[in-house]
Amino acid sequence: MGVNIVIISRDKLQQEEIGILLEEDLKIINELTAIENLKCLNLIDPYDDTTFNKKQLSQIKEEIKRLKKYKQVNQEALNLISIAVEKAINTNCYIQLIGD
User: Fold this and answer.
1) How far is the CA of 2 from the CAs of 11, 12, 24, in angstroms?
2) DSSP state, residue 40
């Protein structure tokens, strides 16, 4: 399994499912966040819900750029997160990652 990436409106009345971040991809991302000393992506909990606000979304964009240099990370997984971040920033929404 993995975590479901969802964009949620500020009033919490609308949401858009972006995709699923697979458990094995999340594991690699978490390992690399420790190496890179990243502050946001390391907070993703595969067993619970994790919510990122607008301020954190800008930080996540920078963290994804830093992770793209690693060959062991699934670039499609990073692209999925990037799509969610861009949509959330452009629509003034939150991102929620819903764990198992």
Assistant:
1) 26, 23, 8
2) S
37 dihedral zone (left: phi>0; alpha: psi -120 to 50; beta): left
Could you list the pLDDT tens digit for every one of the 100 residues in the chain? 799 999 999 998 999 999 999 999 999 999 999 999 999 999 999 999 999 999 999 999 999 999 999 999 999 999 999 999 999 999 999 999 999 8
Q: Give the global pTM.
A: 0.92
Closest CA to 88 of 97, 76, 99: 97
Domain ranges in the chain are 2-98
Q: Among the CATH numbers 3.40.1760, 3.30.390, 3.90.1480, 3.40.50, which is that of 2-98?
A: 3.40.1760
